[in-house]
Amino acid sequence: MLLEIQDISLFYGPIQAVSGASIHVAEGEIVAIVGANGAGKSTLLKAIAGLVPPKSGSIRFNGQDITTLAAHRRVSAGIALCPEGRQVFPDQTVADNLELGAYALNLSAADLSAAIEEQFDIFPRLRERRAQPAVTLSGGEQQMLAIGRALMSRPKLLLMDEPSLGLAPLIIKDIFAAIRRLRERGMTILLVEQMANQALRAADRAYVIETGRITLTGTGREMLASPEVRAAYLGGG
Ligand code: ATP
User: Fold this and answer.
1) Which atom, in ligand 1's list, is nearest to the CA of 44?
2) Which of 1, 67, 98, 163 is 20 to 30 A distant from 169 in Cα terms?
3) What secondary structure does DSSP assign to the chain, as a single string?
4) SUPFAM superfamilies per the record (predicted)?
């Protein structure tokens, strides 16, 4: 198992955001966590990235207990977070944004440009826009840039927080096509989404989280067929 979270509880001061959640992700899987606004999805990803310390429970990654490991060490261990709302550096160029994603690796100039070229192979549209400031990109292109920047740290596990947020349906399809391409390249992906449809189609397995608790789990296909999931997260259709 690449990632194994056991019985984790997460708080912001007195507010409990996640209660006793257990999830696992095997190498090469796409796993989705779906849930409503405020259910605890982002908090769970932040805990894996080392940005919210667990009150109880454990996180194992790649054979190592990382429950208390500092966030920057988790990046070196192979965990990258593509944050909600993309958070690209607006005034920096596309190439500079990508470069910043690799800062922890201390790459040589040659390795750095090879790594940037690799992102351009995955997201050809970024290549055409390499010298533009990120702020001039469309929302979908900024999402691709945010994914590319996360991939620059050469992760074993990519965490994605609401990659579809604020994007039009056709663009969301593009983003999920890119997510599938990444899996074909061997990337393991844990993503959280409020808009469950595309996420469940792409996912090998999924979890539903409701007010901080995992309430349902199954294959992406099972979840798409589940009446509860359809009613709550797929517009009832
Ligand atoms: P969204 O899709 O809106 O991001 P989410 O499922 O990711 O929702 P979280 O952001 O993880 O939900 O929030 C879980 C709970 O923790 C919510 O009740 C939220 O109000 C609370 N919370 C989140 N961040 C903080 C914070 N910094 N301080 C206090 N409470 C917080």
Assistant:
1) 11
2) 98
3) --EEEEEEEEEETTEEEEEEEEEEE-TT-EEEEE--TTSSHHHHHHHHHTSS--SEEEEEETTEE-TT--HHHHHHHTEEEE-TT----TTSBHHHHHHHHTGGG---HHHHHHHHHHHHHH-HHHHHTTTSBGGGS-HHHHHHHHHHHHHTT--SEEEEE-TTTT--HHHHHHHHHHHHHHHHTT-EEEEEESSHHHHHHH-SEEEEEETTEEEEEEEHHHHHH-HHHHHHHSTT-
4) P-loop containing nucleoside triphosphate hydrolases (SSF52540)
